[in-house]
Amino acid sequence: MLENLRFYSIYLALLAGIVGLFFLYKLPGHKAKSLLGMIFFSVLTEFVGSNLTRWTGLINYCVFNIYILVSFTYYLILLKYLLVHRNHKRFADILLIIFVLFYICDFIFIQKTIFEAFTFSFAFGVIFVLILSCLYLVEIFNSKKILNFGKSIFFWFILGVLLFHVPFLPFMLAIKWFLIESNETIYSLMLFILNLLMYGCFIIGFIWSEKKYNY
């Protein structure tokens, strides 16, 4: 039972997307509305990923490898537009270029196939998102935004992304390097809990945020 729990993560993503649609009036611009697009892209990825093997007999790593490229590219671009200082924005551009180039090198020279997990690309993406998220939070805490940061959907979205990816990265690397035994039940339970935290943050953000702080 528990080993299949991770397959229910799609319903968490779908719930977050539906709540986001209900509070769509709070998302005034393309930047805010893009959060919903990313959530529904996650729903599509979960759906295709969980059914690809049954449909085609192929390993579903290819689906999630594409998701790694799209999602982290999106997170890095989003964080760039959330950052205020020009040097921070330029730094975000540099990290984005490095990530995309490393992803290409990972595919061509390391994995050499789309049907193996792009663990190193995932690791680079998490580290880069963490760095830019720290810069984003520092900018918030050093500005008047600190008074109302909890009313911004972007704060809750970034928090959710961090709560999922940062704890999952060492667990994923430990399994890859055989530092811990791969246990399907533990893996599935952890994945579901982290998804619950992430999409829970998204839902709180949609409910708690105010339109004037979502530009």
From TrEMBL:
Transmembrane segments: 6-27, 58-79, 91-111, 117-141, 153-180, 186-208
KW NADP (keyword) present: no
UniProt keywords, alphabetically: Membrane, Transmembrane, Transmembrane helix
Coiled coil: none
Name of this protein: YhhN-like protein
UniProt organism field: Flavobacterium endophyticum
